[in-house]
Amino acid sequence: MALQPRNLFEDLSGTDKVPSRRYIRLSARPRPVKAIAGAPLLPMNTPMAQNTVTGFWEPFVQGGADGTAVIRAFLLCDHQSSAAGETVAELVFAMEIHRNDINTAAIRAVLGGGATEAQLDTALGASLLRELDFYIQGLVPPQA
Fold first, then answer.
1. Is 17 exposed, middle or buried (0-12, 13-18, 19+ CB in 10 A)?
2. Which residues are paired to 134 by β-bridges?
3. Cα–Cα distance between 69 and 48 in angstroms, integer?
4. CB-based contact 136:126 (threshold 8 Å)
5. Can you tell me the distance from the alpha carbon of 129 to that of 93, in angstroms, rounded to the nearest whole number?
6. Which residues touch 38 (CB under 8 Å, ≥6 apart)?
7. Domain ranges for the chain
8. Are 48 and 67 in contact (CB under 8 A)?
9. CATH tag, 24-137
10. What distances in angstroms separate CA 136 from CA 1, 95, 101, one per listed residue?
11. What does the pLDDT profile of the chain (144 residues) look like in tens digits?
């Protein structure tokens, strides 16, 4: 009997043996996250960018300055930010993830705006992410 490779992105919710999220974490490290007004709870898989001036990590901003418009990591789990000062969060720096597991509606609700679905899909399809060992499954090619 031949062994069949397991589909990395099959929905495994409802089982008690594996997590319900459909991603394979390849590399995660703790990093400083900047203070955010209102101290929102940032949802798991929030796209993160590193501010090239301050060195702090912050949520991806479409059209942002100082490196904040370039996705370079994702939050490993929900993270309580602080309005008073920086916090430390586990950021994933290389992984395979399905596009549907990046909850952009929740991210926009928490941050009070942000990239549209189409803008985020463009950012997720950037060649830099592939160079950084991010493999985003389920992206729909842009329509001509």
1. exposed
2. 95
3. 9
4. no
5. 10
6. 83
7. 24-137
8. no
9. 2.40.300.10
10. 32, 8, 10
11. 444 444 433 443 443 333 445 556 678 888 989 888 888 888 888 888 999 999 999 988 888 889 888 889 988 888 888 888 889 998 888 888 888 888 777 777 766 666 777 888 888 888 888 888 888 888 876 544
- The amino acid occupying position 129 is L
Structure token pair of residue 31: 């990093």
Q: Is 121 helix (H, G, I), strand (E, B) or coil?
A: helix
Token pair for 143: 């329509």
Q: Which of 131, 130, 97 is nearest to 24 (CA)?
A: 97
Does the model's pTM come out above 0.85?
no
